[in-house]
Structures
1.
Amino acid sequence: MNFRTIIEPFRIKSVEAVKFTRREEREARLREAGYNVFRLHAEDVLIDLLTDSGTGAMSAAQWGALMQGDESYAGSRSFYRFQDVVRDLTGFRHIIPTHQGRAAERILFHTILHAGQVVPNNNHFDTTRANIEVEDAEALDLVIPEGRVPSAIHPFKGNVDLEALERLLAERGDRVPLVMVTVTNNSGGGQPVSLENVRGVRALCDRFRKPLFLDACRFAENAYFVKVREPGQGHRAPKAIAQEMFGLADGCTMSAKKDGLANIGGFLAMNDDTWAEACRNLLILTEGFPTYGGLAGYDLEAIARGLEEVVEEPYLRYRIRSTAYLGEKLLAAGVPIIQPPGGHAIYLDARALLPHVPPLQYPGIALANALYVEAGVRGVEIGTVMFGLQPDGTEVPGAMDLVRLAIPRRVYTQSHVDYVAEAVIAVAGMREQLRGYRIVQAPRVLRHFTAHFEPLP
Ligand SMILES: Cc1ncc(COP(=O)(O)O)c(C=O)c1O
């Protein structure tokens, strides 16, 4: 018999209580936090959808693997286990552990980038962009036009615009040291990239002799989307699809806090011997010896086991389905979201929901703050605050104003998700009462993490 209900493919062995607060308490906590949900104490949040990064639940097998950690400074057994698993998955020659994804980005870009160069990507994630711009280089987003329209339906909205990439490489190719593709495309809504599109990028990279790097944080979720959406891929195991995608690239940056199913960690991997040697030299300066890269031996064990679990089909089926479940509930209630639902998150279209709040008054902040005050749910603005500040200090509207509700892996149950849907629908119902914000103080780089806001009258 085939039952329709897709259940969580695990049972729960250990639980953590959540704290219930009153609305007045949440109002006070948010005011004290400068109206920036990043500055809240996590304890004061009921359901935390700020990020899916490092917030997942590890399996019993991962906790068990922790005890196998070899904490030797050099040549630890745990490193070799980690290296075997990453190499089996990616096929890359050099595997360089780092404490998280942005460390891999910083080491790669500081090693290979020069001022005035251009790095194309479908959409750069904020830390990727920042690590490129800090080298006085340009981070260029070349996602397909559908990827910029929240309501547009396309099975692979994360795809790279191959014509735009070809134009860039033809006109300014001498300034492009490498091409990147982010799978899935977080800043564009957690949208997947097709194998066919990566093959197209590879062909252009071959023609213009450029290396191709994946930002592989959510490679397994991307592989599952390929399996269920790309013609001719349905019979394949997600791992085989992921292996083929890595095989099209020359290297990757990876945050193991996502599809590594670990709470910390990442890696940089590549085939080029010269780049790898230079990257390892910088790694030693800032992260640690090349066989631990800022991680404990037990972290390497947890990641190795996590990378094996994340490509299991029952896990990926539940993962992608549970995100879509939230999206479908919101759509049925008329809440505008990026369509179709992404892999790790639902993105509320705050600009569409709050047309009376102009982008420079931050509709994403207005919506995220209301969700916290009304329901204790924490999401995050992905919009003008995150992307609107230009390198010259001026401010322009971001391409979209979204609130991302990221689903931690294996943490919340279906009733938690039902509560979130009810909360979002209730806040959408009071949309006319929501007001914009202004920034009171903010740093020049990655301002969304620490900025202080003030509600407009
Ligand atoms: C697509 C993408 N790239 C890079 C990163 C950076 O990884 P980390 O947070 O581990 O530094 C993230 C984190 O959210 C991401 O989503």
2.
Amino acid sequence: MGNLTGKVAFITGAARGQGRSHALRLAAEGAAIIATDICRQLDVPYLMSTRSDLDETARLVSEQGGTILAGEADVRDLAALARAADEGAAAFGGIDIVVANAGICSFDTIDAMDEDKWQTMIDIDLTGVFKTVKATLPHQRDGGSIIITSSTAGLKGYSSLSHYSAAKHGLVGFMRAAAHELGPRGIRVNTIHPTQVPTDMLMNEQTYRMFNPHLDEPTREDFEAASQAGMVMPVPWVETADTSEAVAFLASDAARFITGATLPVDAGAQMK
Ligand SMILES: NC(=O)c1ccc[n+]([C@@H]2O[C@H](COP(=O)([O-])OP(=O)(O)OC[C@H]3O[C@@H](n4cnc5c(N)ncnc54)[C@H](O)[C@@H]3O)[C@@H](O)[C@H]2O)c1
């Protein structure tokens, strides 16, 4: 612990799930945290986070002795992200680490998907990352690290996920271009590619149904079995602590010459 003492990390989607876990992990390594989240319900078939979730992230970071500034910002709103980055950088002296983690998920076949559903996914899961990087870049210190949360669906295509797969593949192209642009400043840019992670985005009825289309009322146990069938290793999913470990590694000097990499955290799912 203490690998990131003196560093400042800007994290989107930090109210809960993987984003909260990344905030706690990076804070435990000594980084000051600028945490943002939309804290509002969008048209997705699961409950999204609230302001009290973001406040709980702040409380947990503070409780373990960390420093955090938390505020609401939609990753579709460049001005709101810039305000959060400006305030955080003013408070902590700059930004070293950016974790572009915010995202939504939904399912639909191409024939059933309307334009709004497609566009919202692209706006949040792809363009939201561009806006996150753009808003933080003016404060980014040389030698920093940008970590973008893609997905196994950023390396493979899946039925009913054309919008999500397109956005998450798009992040790989964005990451590679950004790694070229920012490499001369010693800023590294990488993507992580988690398989299923048991957060609220995943552990809900829509996912259970997608993984078990032949069942009328699939249960969590049905989902667990179907999910495990997609892994090389004998697990149904990876934990938030596993993706946070990858984020902490890529943020640290241990990864000082790793840039332009697509790092799976997936129990082998992308090989199946
Ligand atoms: N859970 C999985 O199985 C899984 C697998 C692979 C990749 N991912 C990716 O991991 C990331 C984190 O997801 P999670 O599993 O923690 O789910 P989650 O739903 O618990 O967390 C996502 C967070 O992002 C926030 N968010 C959504 N839209 C936003 C917006 N427009 N602006 C700002 N914040 C917004 C939500 O409010 C929420 O707090 C996402 O990018 C997701 O696509 C998840």
